[in-house]
Design goal:
By secondary structure, this protein is α/β, with parallel strands linked by helices. It contains 17 helices and eleven strands.
């Protein structure tokens, strides 16, 4: 006890178990600190360091070895999927109409992305009330013209019965909401032929019409396509995919480190090949992942051509398809957005785009437990609430009903995702944009689902 930090942990009802610092009764985590002396670590901003000790800390930061190791991996290519801040097409088609006094940082990946959001908030609040309503009218008009027929596609495939009935390892976490989301994602993949058709296609050469092998040298495990899960987190969507569809080769891409991952359970499955890549998607060159080369050559749909943002090209013939549950639109940036040309042709400028992504945060700041109405029910009312007594845009926003703010936010989300949908179609994919779970399950309930025409 003498060698323990003297900070009391109320929830654990004991002292901190760490060793105290020299000439202190507390460890480094619990030593009282002066905010003016501490700065974020440049290598890993999740922790802070005394400014006077920064030079020494940079030589021994725990994340240093990991960063150095990553940069030497063949699949690490800084910014390969980042896109470009300005495109030639933008110069040719950009509207001359701009929001006044915009003070966006030139680099969208600046030290604090929150700076961009706060600048957009100030930009909106500095607008005149008539200009604010004109922008809302533009958003409503664009949404009405392009966001049509977003169908509900709630799927509960028979293959996922073991998860639906909770007939799984009790050590695996089970949250009904997450299971409903994962089941419907896989159900939509099955519905368009990405899962079932992929396996059946590989077995067709080996099986007769009754499903019995016709050759002794058939190896089904080599024929099953590889699955890459981006933003995999703990990997439980892949766990369900492996449990219910027999996927044999899996790559989990996630930049963060998580506890209680599904990896341990997945590695216990016979003949399952699993590789976790801890890297930011922006810097990942999938074509350079050695273990993918012999099975499936992926270049993030279009490889080098996709980095041109709106460049030509056809879908990689080895790409079976993809499913993207869209969310976190408020983190989207102009540089990264895949279909700038489409938005510019609709009359949406770069500055207006950043205002739109700020509006997207309004979609999910309401009560997540309620089933929000369709945005079309409120489209015609949002832009007609102008009051002669308004003192400015900040007052207008403050007086908007929560459901009106949410409706505007969802319109902005759907505009962004429709641009992505159109990009997929332009590049040879059969693509759909659907609601895959009710909003009462999750307000982030839209799915982009696409398959290669080669599977047709």
């Amino acid at each position: 006890m003498e060698n323990r930090c003297k900070f009391w942990l109320p929830k654990k009802k004991r002292l901190c178990a760490n060793v105290p610092l020299t000439e202190s009764v507390f460890c480094g985590n619990h030593t009282p600190r002066s905010d003016s002396q501490w700065i974020p670590c440049p290598i890993d901003p999740s922790h802070s360091v005394l400014e006077e000790n920064l030079e020494g800390h940079l030589r021994r930061c725990p994340l240093l070895k990991q960063v150095e190791s990553l940069t030497h991996q063949p699949f690490y290519q800084k910014g390969i999927n980042a896109g470009k801040e300005e495109d030639q097409q933008e110069i040719e088609t950009a509207s001359s109409t701009r929001l006044e006094d915009s003070a966006l940082a030139d680099d969208p990946k600046s030290e604090a992305f929150g700076y961009i959001l706060s600048e957009m908030k100030r930009t909106v609040y500095s607008m005149s009330v008539p200009d604010f309503y004109k922008l809302i009218e533009k958003i409503e008009s664009v949404h009405k013209s392009i966001c049509k027929d977003i169908q509900e596609s709630y799927k509960v495939p028979e293959a996922c019965g073991m998860w639906i009935k909770r007939e799984v390892d009790r050590k695996l976490p089970f949250q009904e909401k997450h299971v409903m989301q994962q089941v419907s994602i896989l159900g939509n993949m099955e519905d368009v032929g990405l899962i079932k058709s992929s396996i059946a296609k590989e077995r067709a050469d080996c099986d007769d019409s009754n499903g019995f092998p016709v050759r002794d040298d058939c190896d089904y495990s080599n024929g099953v396509p590889a699955v890459v899960e981006f933003g995999a987190g703990r990997g439980y969507l892949t766990q369900m995919l492996a449990d219910c569809y027999g996927i044999k080769r899996v790559f989990l891409v996630e930049r963060k480190s998580y506890k209680l991952k599904a990896d341990r359970s997945l590695r216990q499955k016979e003949s399952l090949i699993l590789q976790r890549l801890r890297i930011d998607i922006e810097d990942l060159n999938l074509n350079a992942v050695e273990s993918l080369r012999e099975d499936l050559t992926l270049r993030c749909c279009l490889g080098e051509q996709s980095n041109q943002s709106n460049g030509g090209g056809c879908v990689n013939p080895n790409l079976r398809g993809l499913a993207i549950a869209t969310c976190c639109h408020h983190l989207c940036q102009w540089k990264h957005y895949i279909n700038k040309k489409y938005l510019l042709e609709l009359g949406i400028t770069k500055e207006e785009f950043h205002v739109i992504i700020w509006f997207t945060s309004w979609a999910v700041d309401a009560d997540h437990g309620t089933d929000l109405p369709d945005v079309t029910d409120y489209r015609s009312s949002i832009g007609k609430k102008q009051s002669h007594g308004d003192n400015g845009v900040e007052d207008v926003v403050r007086n908007m009903k929560a459901v009106e703010r949410a409706a505007l936010g969802f319109m902005c989300k759907q505009i962004i995702d429709t641009g992505r949908l159109m990009w997929m179609k332009e590049h040879g994919l059969e693509a759909q944009f659907v609601k895959y779970v009710p909003s009462s399950v999750s307000p982030e309930n839209h799915l982009l689902i696409a398959r290669s025409t080669i599977l047709s």
